[in-house]
Structure formats: C-alpha cells, structure tokens
Amino acid sequence: MLRYLALKIGRALFVVWAAFSLTFVLLFVLPADPVDLLFDPAEVNAVPPEVREQVAAGYGFDRPVILQYLTRLGHALTGDFGTSVQSGRPVVPTILDVLPSTLLLAAGALALALVIAFVIALAATSARRAWVRDLVEALPSGAVSVPVFLSGILMLQIFSFRLGWFPAFGDRGARSLVLPLITLAIPVSGPIAQLLVRSFATEFRSGYVTTSWAKGATRGGIIVRDVFRNAGLPALTIAGITFGNLIAGSVITETVFARQGVGRMTQAAINTLDVPLVQGTVVLVAAGFALINLIVDLIYPLLDPRLRAALATGRAA
Amino acid sequence: MTDPHADRQDPLLRITGLVIDYRAGRRRWTPAVRGATLHVGPGEFVSLVGESGSGKTTLVQGALGLLPESARIRAGSIAYSGVDVTGWNDRRMALVRGNYVGFIPQDPNTSLNPVKKIGRQVIEAVRFNEPEARDAAQHRQAALDSMRTAGLKDAERVFHHYPHELSGGMKQRALIAIALAGKPKIIVADEPTSALDVTVQKVILDHLVRLREELGIGILLVTHDLGVALDRSDRILVMRDGEIVEEGPVRRVLENAADDYTRRLLDAAPARHSGRLEPASGPRPLPGREVLRARGLTKTYRLRGRGPRRELRALDGADLVVREGATHAIVGESGAGKSTLASILAGFASPDSGTVHLGDRELTGLSRRRLREVRRDLQFVFQNPFTSLDPRFTVSEIVAEPLRAFGLARGRRERTARVTELLKAVALDEEHLHRLPGQLSGGQRQRVAIARALAPNPRILVLDEAVSALDVSVQAQILRLLVDLQAEYGLSYVFVTHDLGVVRLIADDVSVMKDGVVVETGPVEQVFRSPRHDYTRQLLEAIPGAGLAVAGAR
C-alpha cells in the first residue's frame, strides 16, 4: 500500500516538474532573445540597449542557462514564479485572485456534466424500445461535436438577448453562472456519456446480470443494484481527459461570457506574451492534472475490492 | 404461480413445440430452436445434451424468459406447473424466476457481481422471493442456510468474502446457494461445470443429485458432455440443430439409441473407447529411443504477496521423457503446472533450474538464434483455434508463414505446392486456401493450426489442450487425424490435457501432475489399470461417463 502511494505521488510530482522544465525550455531558452518577450511587441524596437541589458541582468538572462533554470526552479519551489510583465504583480497572487471563479465554474460544470452523462447512460440502458435507445445514444456524439463558442453564443442569443432570463456577461450572482455552466458542461459531458453508455451496455449483458434476472430481480433493480457501480467505475478513469476539456472549455467560455477566470487570464497572457504568467498557469494546470489523477488512483481501490486485495498484499511485487 | 396445487398431474416444467428465431437482418429470421418439446417432473433429473450451436442454451433462455432482444418466440408454449408463461413480460417473469425456477449459470467466474460480497448477493435472492416481509436477521439466517445446503461448509466466512477471493468450485456453490435461496421447485443448470476441474465437477454434480433427493426438486441439466449426462440423469434429451432428436431413459438411450446422431455422439465420446486409437494406415510403429528429455525442471513465479517472500512454485523438479514416434500425455487440473511445463519444453519460457535435451542437444540456455534453429524440430499447437490464428491472414498465408520464416520453400510456386500438400495432410483441400479463419469451423481451424505446426517438418509437436475447445464429434476427428499423422511422419507428441478420456485414446505414456510435481508417470495402460498415487485414482474416478465405457465394452 505504501509502495503504491509512493509510486503514485512520485508520478504526480514528476508530471509537475516536467511541465515546469518544458515551459522553461519553450519560453526562456528557445526564443532567440527572451528579453524581446518581456516587452510589449509594439514597443520592442524602441527600447534602448542599456535598458535591455539592465532587464536581462535583472532576469538573469546573462547567466548560463543551467543556472537560470536552477534559480527559477528554486524560486518556483518556494511558490515564486516571478512577476507578471503586464501588471508587475507577482504571478502567484495574480493567479490566485481569479482561481476561485474558475474553480466554481469548472466544479459546477463537472457536476452538471456527470449528471447529464449518467442520465443519458441510465436512460439508454433502461429503454426497452430500440429506437429510443438509439436516439439517446446519439446524444453524446452530438454534444461533443458542437463547439463551445457556438453553443455559448447560441445560448446568449436565446436566453439573455431574446428571453432576458439570464445576464449576458459578468460574474456577479448565481444567475450569471447558469449559462456559462451549461455551455461548459455540454461538451464535457459528451465523452463521459459515451464511455458510460458503452460500459453500461457491456455490464448489462454480463454474467452476473443474468444471475440477478434468475434471482427474480426486476430491470430497474438490476440497473441500480448491479450495473451502476460496475459500469460507473470507468468514468473515473477519464477524469484526466475531462480536466483537460474543462480547462480548454473554460478559456472559451470565460471569453464568450466575459467572466473573470484563469482561462481568460491565460488567453490574455498569451496574447501579450506575458511569459512568467504563462509559465505559472501551465505549471498550475499541470499540478491540477496530476492531483486529479492522483485522487482517482487513490479512490479506485476503495470502489473496487479486487484492486484493494491486490494492494493489501502488494508489497513484495 | 402462487398456487402449487393447481394440478398435480402437471409437470414442473413443460415446453411444447417451442420455436425460437434469431433476427438475421431486416425481417429475416433464422430459427435456433425448431419445435422443441420436453418436460421435467418433480424430483426428476433430466439432461439436455447437445454440441455447440444445437440451440440448447437458447432453449433454456427461452424457458427462463432470458432471451436476448434479437430473439423471439415464434410458436409453442412454456408452462410451469400448468401455468402458461409464454410471452410474459419481465415484471411478471420476475415472480417466476427465483422462487419457482432457479438457475445455475455456466461460468462461475463471471456470474457473480465482483464488487459485492457473497452474502449480500445471496440475501438479495432470499429477499426477492419472499411473499411476506421479514427482518434483516431472518434474511441473513435464510441466506446462510441456503449456503450450507449448497455445500459451503463455513458459510459464515464465505458470507463476508468477495467473489475473487473464492475458488471456482466455491463460486459455483455460491451460485447454487443463490439458485436455492428462493426455494425453487425446479433448477435449470446451463453447463454448470464446464469451467471447472474434473474433480470439482464431480463434487458439484454429486451435490446436485443429493439436492434433488433431499429437497425433491426437479433438475434440468444442460451439457455438451454425454458422459456427465449419462452418469446421473433419469432421462436424456439429445438436441441437434434446434430439434430434440432423442429422448428416453438413460438405459434405453445407451443400449438402443433411436437416432443416428445420438449413436455417433455416443461413439465419439472418449470414454466409449477402452484402448488407443490405431492409425488408418495399419499398426503403428513401436516407440523408439528418447527424443526429448526434461530433468528437474523448476520454475517459480513471484507473486504479489504479503511477507518477505510469497512465491508460486509452478514447477517443482519435474522430469519428462518423450520417446520417438510416441505420445506423452501430461494431465492434471488447473494450476498443476502443465502449461508451464509445455511452454518450457517449447522454449517459450526458461526454467529456473533443470535441463531440457532435444536428442543430444541441450535447449536450456541456448541463445535466441540457436533456439530458433531448434524450433524447426519442435512446434506448438495452441488450445484455442479461435485466437491462435491471425484473423486477417488467409489459410494459405497462415500455413506458409513458418515456411517463409525458416526459408524452407524457394519461390512462390514451391511454397504453394507445399501449403497444398500440408492442407491435404490435415484433410482440408485447395478450396480452403484463400479463406479467412473467420470462415472456418472450429475443427477446420484447428486443422489449419496443425498444418502450420507441421510446415517446418518438425520431429515433435507440443499440443497444449489442443482439442479441449472442440465439440466431442470434432474432437474425435482431430484425435484420429493426429494419430494418422503420427504414423505417417513418425512424429512425437507432448499432449497436454485435463481430460483423461482423451489420454486413453491417444497416449502411450502419461505423466500425472499436481502442484508442479509429477506424481506419477508410466505407460498409459499401467497407470490407468493400477494407479499408484491417490491423486491419479481420484482423477480417474472423476472421469464422467463410467456408464458409457461399460456399454461400449459390450
């Protein structure tokens, strides 16, 4: 068990470190002159050479790459990713400022997506008529294939401009959260629902379901008591992909609905070539990614007794 | 269903003229069961025998209302104690299933919910089938009783186990407990022991017989194994192509089968033959000198385990001698180390210690390149012909592959000629050359696998359960083919099997394995007539179809 834990935590740390190193190479080493990136692209040519040198020395660009790397890594370990070029504020507080609003959006969208996915899977499994099932099973691929910006704009058109039920943008109050939440949840629910529909169908045909029928169980009972848990497990495994979808979706959703958040901040940081801020965000996302997968790995044994048994005796391996 | 006294004359289960179709396309249906009629009375043990594709499982699914959606009942009726349940929906059938008819499924390894404890699964079966509500403690007690009746002695312990913590035999007992929990009047068992070892099979089947005697329930056993059916049934039904072709008491079927197919099935059963199969070409040559010798083979797998060392001794000092032109059978139950031994002999795995000699050449510790040369002499036939052939290769490509790999046939024409010759040797003809494995039957596939193994002109074939996945009649054909090929090419066989009936048919020598150790070895007649080891005796007693042998000897 300890070994398993150490292995998984080690892997998570590795992912974060790799993300840091990769962004360092991409952002600080590969560009011909990283100093260029620190200025507004429109004004780069107007900057006098002394200032450039001063800035380079300030950021340590005149030192060997490996030393730069180690210094930055050392600072990053203490939570210091430098200061944002645009605002001049330290990177970490800048991110932390907008993080709660994105977390709220992402968590809400994830919960909603899960509900949608499970409803679709349950409906498809319990449908007796083949055409109903076919129709329900077609929904997830529809959800995946609608781009977020399109569904977002469509929803804005209908629900805020036409009907005026919800505010079109901003991030004040619960009502402003509804449309972004749905916009983000729909594409995220697609892959989860596809996976669930498939695994519900597979499990529903498995041997233990036949046993339950033979016991005298009813269709609904079998789905709830036997199929649900076995078929629900695989949904956990794609939590990683889901997290990626959430982040990608939040960039667009926050832009469309003019909401404050990590997604919109990242987009702005990339537009203005705010290198330290970009690196900070990438490492943050990587950390989130690693953390989610770590949690999934730790939860899985709790839900599946077979895996639990393998772990309890798994030290000699 | 709730009134058992409806009519005392009605059998527990009566199926009349049942026709079941499978959807084959838009508005097209293929019949799987064509007008089957059968009945099972109280306290009666009836066996339904048939080979794969005979429709026996479909018939049982129809009886329980568990047909897949692609199937429909076109005609006929199913009645339990005179109550016609044909066409009942799930909700009404749920009242019949469990408390009137219990079901024991085929594969205990997939038929229990892996994430629920055994106890809970049995309790559910109790709870679903109870007319009046009782409290949890009583349910628990009833479940434990049912488990004890099913032959789980330490029911309290098993109660708290998950399925993966139990052996196959225990899981099957848990499933029997589930079937019994609703206090059914009839139990339908679909191949309940096919996935189990022979000794476990015997115990489970004997237990079913005892349940019938003690509880007076009727039993309908579906099986492909005529021996199993004959040993215990009151009546036998033989099914072929969706029709019941033979019906009658065991004695009569044995002595005077009315149907041609039944007679063929009886003749194909290994237990029917007392001696070894002789090749068609005449008497077989006497076994020659040793060609393959294994000495002191040991192989240990490290298990994930608690404590400083938990290891599995798959092989523990196993010896084996194979004579030229002879068949050496390795028998044992699952986990005995047979397959490990076979894969070491074939060079797929290396032993921790011990040696394997092919002629005067030591195989163990050979480099990969050297081993490759040796492989020409030593070929392998796998258990499952459905997975051992590449589905995207044609038959001719499959058989030509070793020729190409060893550079044995120059040019396309020579290769095709050789492939045709090999196919002829296994009784397939040129029309099969361009078929894909998916277009062949199980027996034909195994013939292709044998042709592939013969391609490099080997001296020894290692056959790992090569006939276990096949129907008895097909199995008999393949065994005959193997015997003929042996005489023609002077081959030596290492024949791994769990079926002692087959051993008698084909082997000259036999090694009995248990827990990685060869417990007994010697000529087949001697080991079978006077087994020295207890385990051998136990295995021999567990062979189903003792009745068959007697009838066959007449």
Please characterize this protein's 3D structure:
The complex is a heterodimer of chains A (317) and B (554). Helix content of chain A is 78%, strand content 0%. Chain A is mostly helical. Chain A folds into 2 domains: 2-77, no CATH class; 94-271, MetI-like (MetI-like fold). In chain A, helix 5 runs antiparallel to helix 10. The mean pLDDT of chain A is 82. Chain B is α/β, with parallel strands linked by helices. Chain B has 4 domains: 1-100 and 186-268, P-loop containing nucleotide triphosphate hydrolases (Rossmann fold); 109-183, no CATH class; 277-377 and 458-544, 3-Layer(aba) Sandwich (Rossmann fold); 382-457, no CATH class. Chain B contains 20 helices and 20 strands. In chain B, strands 6-7-8-3-9-10 form a 6-stranded mixed sheet, sandwiched between helices. Chain B has a 6-stranded mixed sheet with strand order 16-17-18-13-19-20, with helices on both faces. Chain B has a 4-stranded antiparallel sheet with strand order 2-1-4-5. In chain B, helix 3 runs parallel beside helix 6, helix 4 (136-149) packs across helix 6 (168-181) and helix 13 packs across helix 14 (411-425). Mean pLDDT of chain B is 87; it is low at 1-7. Chains A and B meet through helix 9, helix 10 and helix 14 of A and helix 2, helix 3 and helix 6 of B.
Content of β-strand of chain B: 15-25%
The global form of chain A is flat
Question: Which oligomeric form is depicted?
Answer: heterodimer
The total number of structural domains of chain A is 2
Tertiary shape of chain B: globular
The CATH superfamily name of the largest domain in chain A is MetI-like
The run of helices and strands of chain A is: HHHHHHHHHHHHHH
Count of separate DSSP helical elements of chain A: 14
The Rg value of chain A, from CA coordinates, equals: 24 Å
CATH superfamily of the largest domain in chain B: P-loop containing nucleotide triphosphate hydrolases
| Mean pLDDT across every amino acid position of chain A | 82
Strand elements of chain B, count: 20
Helical content of chain A (DSSP H or I, runs of 4+): over 70%
CATH topology (fold) name of the largest domain in chain A: MetI-like fold
Number of strands of chain A: 0
Radius of gyration of chain B, whole Å: 26 Å
CATH architecture verdict of the largest domain in chain A: Orthogonal Bundle
How does the major sheet of chain B shape up?
Answer: 6 strands, mixed
Q: Which pair of protein chains has the largest interface, and what are the residue counts?
A: A-B, 30 and 45 residues
